Amino acid sequence: MRFKFSIIALLLEAVFIVLFGLFVEYDTENINSYLYFKDVHVMIFIGFGFLMTFLKKYGFTSLGINMLIAAFGLQWGTLMQGFLHRGEGEKIFVKIKSMINADFSTATALISFGAVLGKTNPAQMLLLTLLEITVFAGNEYLVTEIFKATDIGASMTIHAFGAYFGLAVTFILYRPGLKNKHKNEESTYHSDIFAMIGTLFLWLFWPSFNSAIAEENERIKIIINTYYALAACAVTTFALSSLLDERGKFSMVLIQNATLAGGVAVGTCADLTIHPFVAMGIGNIAGIISVLGFRFLTPVLASKLKIQDTCGVHNLHGLPGILGGIAGIIVTAVQSETKKGVELTAGKQAAALGSTIGIALVGGALTGAILKLPIWGQVSDQNCFDDSAYWEVPEEEKLYEINSNNYDEHSRFEAVM
Fold it and tell me: Name one GO cellular component term (predicted).
């Protein structure tokens, strides 16, 4: 990895710097939007990062590579979305909204990272981020500029897209050697606590995520709808977690993930004319399908379809993202609504949902085929889910052995006395 990863990373960063020099200029905007940017930024770097620290020997990679993907991806996202949305011959004018959208583009790669967590190397993740954000930007342009669909909280364009892109990648990168659970593919008490930190950050800041790029007069509606959707989803998740356990106990996996599904699902229609009780209903349904997905669907995907979804992104982002798209279709079919002078229709929303899933699956499959090439030096099955393959890690086991030996000698001395 010493030369392969470093050369790729430095070369791509040099390209980014040149492109920024040629095409990017400052723009001015009300600094009040920076408050929303900060919330989204925290979600990307802390929320997503800590959410994936549940694996007992993979915390360095979960946090570290999450940071790498986000820092790398936000630069490429700025360029890709800028090229597509700028006028002919114009510069890319960067403002706070551009920075928020850049963070949004990295969210798709971070979601996909969850599907392949523990089974890829850093060089592969750089390439995945580069390719996925390119495809994401094209699909986002198609949904917003061609279909003229609404997706203010990006249930479809970020969450469903990132999930199905990642699932297609992990399908192509299927490892028969991991069919039976790897010894490191499990959590510990403390690793689950760290993952719960990520959940809490995401849960608290999700109203900002859904409302960050909305018009000022619509933000309060989005915040309220997201707020109550998350609350209803959390209560439902706790209830079902206990109900589905034979001893009535809670599952930390479900609490870490399914409690967030309401924020995903309400995103598409959060700015439409729905009442808080409708948002709560969407959150409730999202919690149900997410919990059931973790409990019953994930094992089927792994055993029957050869989709090894490490973090269960299908249940947190994929299924709730589809639910959000369907909710948008229903709401626009029931009542006519206009956004920015464009009439929203169920047909436009359906086209947006269908294209997003289709493009994500095709793009993910092609990306998986590229990542599977032998030149990237894929980690062996034995070294999956282990930080020591790519990180300098503390030699805790040796320290433990020394302490154990000291304890044994002390015990033998007392026994002799």
Answer: plasma membrane
